[in-house]
Amino acid sequence: MALISLAAVGVVGAGVGLYSIRPRDPVFEVQSITLSGFNVRFTTESALPMAVVDVSLTLFIKVINPNVTPIQFSSTVMDIYYKGTLLGQAQVDSGSQEAKSEQVMEVPAKLDGLKMTNHLKDLFTDVTKREMTLNSVVTISGCAVVWKWKHNFEVHVNSDIKVDPVFLQILDQENRVELDLVPEI
User: Fold this and answer.
1) From CA 171, how far away is CA 79, in angstroms rounded?
2) Residues 164, 171, 131, CA angle at the centre, nearest 5°?
3) Across 114-120, average pLDDT
4) C-alpha span between 135 and 89 (Å, rounded)
5) Is 72 a residue whose pLDDT tops 60?
6) Backbone torsions φ then ψ of 2, nearest 5 degrees
7) Is residue 63 a contact partner of residue 102, using CB atoms and an 8 Å limit?
8) Alpha-carbon gap, residue 51 to 28, rounded angstroms
9) φ, ψ dihedrals at 45, nearest 5°
10) Residue in 75, 67, 89, 81 with CA at minimum distance from that of residue 23
11) DSSP per residue, the chain
């Protein structure tokens, strides 16, 4: 009887141990946005030539790895949308992150002024309200190494970020993160 009790405790202990090291979704949060610069250009894509202002931004994104293993991830591109229109992209460089740690990534982004002109009325309304919603979508691929076993994963992040368009302050955000473990091929 004691042997059965000891075996049951061992199974429960192993289950708790495996549960504590299960893969967990990383946390992504845009902490701030800074204006890096403007680029004025003239376009002839419309009937009238017009000046367009492209905007360069830097996104500061806090990433938390809640897992018990370090991760490595490859470079990727984040798409940034306004009212359903792709305004620009941000380049996320490859890197790594230690287990149970957090870091802030600086991600440069460029927004196309010509694509913003498609939503001038909405943009002016948002500027007067001092609140605009940007959407971003990114998939980050990487791997975690556990006991010399390499586990591939993909993290899909879809964010709705409310920004003060005048002072570029983050007002609110909702981040949806989905972690997929990818089998080796």
Assistant:
1) 20
2) 35
3) 85
4) 11
5) yes
6) -65, -35
7) yes
8) 36
9) -75, -15
10) 67
11) -HHHHHHHHHHHHHHHHHHHTS----EEEEEEEEEEEEEEEEE-SSSS-EEEEEEEEEEEEEEEE-SSS-EEE--EEEEEEETTEEEEEEEEPPEEE-TTEEEEEEEEEEE-HHHHGGGHHHHHHHHHHT-EEEEEEEEEEEEEEETTEEEEEEEEEEEEEEEETTTTEEEEEEEEEEEEEEPP-
Tokens 């003060």 found at: 164
Q: What is the residue type of 6?
A: L
Which of 19-23, 133-137, 178-182 comes out lowest in average pLDDT?
19-23
Cβ atoms of residues 161 and 170 within 8 Å: yes
